[in-house]
Write a structure and sequence with these properties.
Helix content: 40-55%
Radius of gyration: 34 Å
Largest sheet: 6 strands, mixed
Number of strands: 21
């Protein structure tokens, strides 16, 4: 199995291929586009050393092979000028019109905006492209051809970039090519991505294909042709093909099958004139060869979501090699090979093509609609990965309607795929007349009946963690957004405050409003209430906003100048309890329980009324609060640890562990090995099979404490150790 090489192409070769295609290209438009691109990219070179213009020429060539129109070819020639040269989209709009400018702008990445991380940039670039694609699908076809040529020449990239681009291609662009039905591009993108992600597995499968070969298919095709003609089917076109390397890889490595257990490595494709002849040919094939059980699929009566139609059956003859037979009409074959690009390649021969185009793009609008209910751009990536997976399941309503869902979808996804009102009122489900839990994953062929409750019933918030499709998530969020706004605000506020307490973030009351308003703006919310509501209905995930929350808190801390404590002149300091208090000799001291200072911590003293000096850590929240009141400032004095400290101090530690037998004794043994005195130990069960433990021990200083914490973290099933 030979691998295609990306050979450089000249503009003259491109024009020759356009002329040979027989389609009515606007050569004047394409000439002007090439002239602008060649001038803009003058002096630029690719990593491989070729002049940069070779890349847009190669992308245009792939589009010509797909049969795309003049505007697409012109846009492909200029697709990098706005991103990499001084030419602007406005200039392209003036010279080439709004349509070509839309195509170029849709493929152009966002380069002027700063993003906090790579995932946000990737999500926003994808969102921009999908928005342009919802207006004109040619944007995505150009982008797929661009990515295909980049993958063909990816050997020039550094290794890490190759892997990153391959992973993005596998997770985003190959599924989109599949959804658009452009099978050739989809398969080549997957194969080239696999070559970078798992070169060993890729080469192993290539060697197996080269070793086994497909020579026997030539004789099989001839035998079938003769048999069909003898039985009245004349003029059938018969071809054969070998399954893509990634298709075999998925079955061998992800489904743990041997090469010999994969029955569709080799396939014969029969193309006839009508649907009736498809079913007649199927009967004749089953007469000639022995069909394997459970290997027949009728995608003509039940098309795939991307419009693919064909009859599939797996048979075996005298040779011990099973092979798949695909039977389809010419229209079905064009749609299978070129997908949505067939709208342009064979436009004159496809009836109602504009209406079909709208149907084929409905998923793009659904994906974008679901994003409007989520304030988090990165959700788009996870939705792409879940909604556009090549694998689908087909289930039926009791009335026989077919519902297509991605693998892993639940009966809740099924309910929302029928209608949002059905999902919102769902209280249970029957699969093949048996009650199933709402987490039940839909399998192909199941007949599913959704049991509904009263009209005022709504979904559960827990469903957001169960459903798999962006459509279901969007409809659940929208219900809570509209019907439970006040409840969402309360839920969101509580969730945010819990997260801040968990991360020990304390915002002064006078700074709280400004802090929360800034956090809301960073998360694309106009008001703090809108931020609370988004968290409450699930539009903003707490895990996603945590980084921005910490950034805002650190920025606030940097702007808050900590007041300096009052200094007192001293002559000869004397230590009391291991602590020197400036200006007070041999003063009784006690250690504040709110922060439990230890030797090594920076400390400060508070002169109490009748109980000596209370010692706090300098970063204690109570210290900061007290210093803001003028009447208290004079009572704060400098303090520091004496050099000869040898006393034991009490420190309380909080342990979060996985609950198991003998956990307490293992913790006690670890402390005993270090000769650490235990003053108290309290253990209690927590949620999700966990346990919480509070232990008070004797410590010399912070270094000693750090050693104890490190030792406790090594105890089996201890997940975290924090100082109380």
């Amino acid at each position: 199995m030979e691998e295609k090489k990306a050979m450089p192409i000249t503009y003259e070769q491109l024009k020759q291929e356009m002329a040979e295609s027989g389609r009515p290209y606007d050569f004047e438009l394409v000439d002007r586009a090439y002239a602008l691109a060649a001038a803009a990219h003058e002096g630029q070179f690719r990593r491989s050393g070729e002049p940069y213009i070779c890349h847009p020429l190669s992308v245009a060539r792939i589009l010509v092979e797909l049969g795309m129109d003049s505007e697409s070819v012109a846009a492909a020639l200029m697709h990098d000028v706005a991103e990499d040269t001084a030419v602007s989209i406005d200039e392209i709009r003036q010279k080439f019109g709004a349509q070509v400018a839309l195509l170029v702008d849709g493929v152009t990445k966002l380069t002027q905006i700063t993003f906090s991380n790579v995932e946000d940039r990737q999500a926003e670039n994808l969102r921009k492209m999908l928005l342009a694609m919802s207006q004109d699908v040619r944007v995505m076809i150009i982008k797929l051809c661009d990515r295909l040529h980049n993958m063909r020449t990816g050997d020039a990239w550094p290794e890490q970039k190759r892997r990153d681009k391959a992973l993005e291609t596998m997770e985003v662009y190959a599924p989109i090519a599949h959804r658009l039905g452009i099978s050739n591009i989809k398969e080549e993108l997957e194969d080239r991505s696999l070559r970078y992600l798992d070169p060993v597995g890729y080469e192993h499968i290539r060697s197996l294909l080269n070793k086994h070969g497909g020579e026997f298919l030539d004789s099989v095709c001839e035998t079938i042709r003769v048999h069909l003609q003898e039985n009245g089917i004349h003029g059938a076109t018969i071809r054969h093909r070998v399954k893509s390397i990634y298709g075999i890889y998925r079955k061998m490595y992800m489904q743990s099958k041997d090469f010999e257990e994969i029955y569709d490595v080799y396939a014969v494709r029969i193309i006839v004139d009508s649907v009736a002849e498809c079913y007649t040919a199927l009967g004749l094939i089953h007469d000639m060869y022995h069909p394997l059980p459970n290997r027949f699929k009728d995608y003509i009566s039940t098309p795939k979501p991307n419009g693919y139609q064909s009859l599939h059956t797996t048979v075996i003859g005298r040779e011990p090699i099973p092979f798949e037979v695909q039977i389809r009409t010419w229209d079905m074959d064009r749609m299978a090979e070129y997908g949505i690009a067939a709208h342009w390649k064979y436009k004159a021969g496809i009836s109602g093509s504009d209406e079909k185009l709208e149907e084929r793009l409905a998923w793009v609008r659904q994906l974008l609609e679901s994003q409007r209910s989520s304030a988090d751009a990165a959700d788009l990536l996870s939705d792409i990965k879940s909604d556009l997976l090549p694998e689908e399941v087909f289930a039926f309503t009791p009335r026989g309607d077919v519902i297509n869902l991605p693998v892993g979808a639940t009966v809740i996804d099924f309910a929302y795929a029928i209608h949002s009102a059905v999902g919102n009122r769902m209280i249970g489900a029957k699969v093949n007349n048996r009650i199933v839990p709402i987490e039940h994953q839909v399998a192909t062929g199941e007949i599913i009946e959704i049991i509904t409750g009263p009209e005022n019933r709504g979904p559960s918030r827990d469903w957001l963690g169960i459903v798999k499709t962006s459509e279901a998530k969007s409809k659940i969020r929208n219900w809570f957004k509209k019907e439970r706004r006040e409840e969402n605000i309360v839920e969101g506020k509580d969730a945010l405050e819990r997260e801040m307490r968990r991360n020990m973030m304390t915002v002064p009351p006078e700074k709280s409003e400004e802090f929360l308003a800034s956090l809301a703006r960073r998360n694309h919310c106009n008001t703090v209430e809108e931020l609370y509501a988004a968290i409450g209905y699930g539009g903003l995930q707490m895990a996603r906003i945590l980084l921005k929350l910490k950034d805002e808190y650190n920025r606030l801390k940097a702007t808050m100048a900590e007041p300096k404590p009052v200094t007192v002149d001293i002559k000869a300091p004397h230590a009391s309890g291991g602590v020197v208090v400036e200006g007070i000799d041999n003063c009784p001291v006690k250690f504040a329980k709110c922060c439990s200072p230890l030797p090594g911590d920076e400390i400060i003293g508070f002169v109490t009324r009748g109980f000596g000096v209370s010692i706090h850590k300098k970063d204690c929240a109570n210290v900061r609060e007290s210093l803001r009141h003028p009447e208290n400032r004079a009572r704060w004095v400098n303090a520091y640890w004496a050099d000869d400290v040898r006393e034991d101090y009490k420190a309380t530690l909080e342990l979060v562990c996985m609950d198991r037998a003998n956990l307490v004794s293992d913790v006690a043994l670890a402390l005993g090995d270090m000769r650490v005195p235990i003053y108290s130990l309290d253990a209690r069960a927590a949620e999700q099979g966990r346990a919480r433990m509070t232990v008070t021990v004797g410590i010399n200083n912070t270094e000693h404490l750090n050693n104890v914490v490190a030792r406790l973290r090594k105890v089996k099933d201890v997940m975290s150790v924090t100082r109380s």
